[in-house]
Every structure is written in C-alpha cells, then in structure tokens.
Amino acid sequence: RAHQRFVISTHLNPEGDALGSQLALGRALETLGKDVRLCNRDPVPGLYRFLPGADRIEVVEMVPAPYDLLVLVDCGSLDRTGLRLPEPGGGEMVIVDHHLSSQGTGPWHWIDAGASATGEMIYALIRELAVPLDKTIAVNLYAAITTDTGTFRYSNTTPHVLRMAAELIERGADPWNNALRMYESHPEGRIRLLAAALGALERGLGGRAAWIILTSRMFAETGTAAGDTEGIVNYPRSIEGVEVAFLFRQVEEKEWKVSFRSKGGVNVASLAETFGGGGHHNAAGCQVSGTLEEVKQRVLQALERAFGESTVQSPMS
Prior knowledge:
By secondary structure, the chain is of the alpha/beta class. The chain contains ten helices and twelve strands. Strands 3-2-1-4-5-6 form a six-stranded parallel β-sheet. A six-stranded mixed β-sheet has the order 7-8-9-10-12-11, sandwiched between helices. Strand 7 (202-204) and strand 8 form a beta hairpin.
C-alpha cells in the first residue's frame, strides 16, 4: 500500500504458475491504482499466450528503473530470473514463493512450501488487499493452480484448493478453455519433439528410473524451443515401476538442464540441490556441465544414493 511503482518478474522458462501469479498480482495492483510493469527474461510460451495480459509482459535483460518495489513470484532469488538490477534507480525487492528449496533473499520474503502453488498465495494476498476477483485475475489464478496441482491430480489438491477453484470459475475462469489452450492446442513441432524424445527413452537402476534426452539438434529439426518441453518429463514418470524420471535438455555443447520428477519416494528437490538447483519434493531441476555421458553418470550415481536413503513411499504432490 505504501509504494506506487512496481515491477513484477518470475523465473526463467516461466510456466503456468509463474505467469498466472505474475499476471494476477499485476492486475490486482493496478486495480489499487499502482503503476505496474511485468518483465521477464524469457518470452511467454505459446500455450500460455491466451492468459489475459500476457501480451504486456516485456522481455528484458535488466529490471527497468525506476521502481519502488521489485516483486519476484514463484522464484526464490534474483539469479533465477536471469535479470540484472539497475544502478542507480532500483528499489526494494520482495519474494513470494512456494518452492521447498527456496530460502528467500533480502529482508522481504514470503515462502510457504505448504501452498499448492504460488497462485494460491497470490489469491490470499489479493483477498487481504480486498481487491475484487475479476475475470482477468480469475483466469490467471486458475491457470496457476491447475498447473501446479496437475489439474487437481496431485496430493497438494486440498479442499481449500478446490473451493478456491470453484470461486475462480464463478468469477469467470473457464475450465474447458483452460484445458483446451494448455493441454490440447500444441503446435505440431512439439508433438514431433515428444515423439523423438520417447523414441530414445532409456531406463535404468533396476527399472526404477527412466529418462529422455532433448538435444539441440532435436530442437532444430522440429522447430521447437525450451518452452515446448513442459510436461514431457511426466511421460517417463508414468511408466509402471518407475519411481523417478528425468529429462536432459541441452542448452550448450557441454551444458544440460536436468528436470526431475518423482512419484514420492525420493525427494528430488534435495537431489537437485546437490547440483546447485532446487524445487519441490516431487518436481525439481538443475543445470549440470559436461558431456551427456558425464552428466548422465553423475545424475544416476546421485539418484542411486538417493534410492538407498529412501525406503518409504510418500504420496505424490
């Protein structure tokens, strides 16, 4: 309430929770008469361009000044945004995040690892500010919570989340349009990328792990980019008997992004942290340097240790 000029940003390669939270908060602050700029390092992926206000998100390398408050949503540090701070002209920074591995940096941070999505936290904040839930806010928050609850399939789908979803639908969110745009309107290139990835699927550690590899050549041949990979890692996780799945995505000749997904028995956030990454108990990621074979060996060795430390299956979330 005390500030006027806001910049809102989120992490690299933003997905539904990040973008929905960013857009909903921006709308709420503008309703209060604030000046708001929405800025990310990476562009909005095609499947999220239907979100109201998505066309307002600026792609920048530096946080635009002047501002009073920089708000990072679904993101535990400035490093994760890929943005640089301006000098001079910068104000304070606030972090709003629900990742288990997020510690928060700076004097102002709100971390709630118990929240199903950052969108759930933004919903609570908007309620606290007494801002009406208009259709723009409702559509964006619905996309946020459906993304991180796996369309209400994961164990973080609480009664509160479902009541919140019902209210968002009453305020204008359309479940079918959300599903149509996010899950049933993929470009052909993404499907060809998926086919190539599944064609090279591998399995190891006694069948408890499965992984797929996306190389720069595969992206070039299918005309796709990083934004087209969302959800692909869930396919190997869906194999019966697989406890942990991961995806290797090439970003440079000897640089690989690794996305982990667990069915609950292994905390992949802790696994990712050993490589300088982080995330949730069942969904996390990191970046690892080396050749593909070197990176695979390091990850599989770390996962083998994690299997040895984990003896109890926990519910998926």
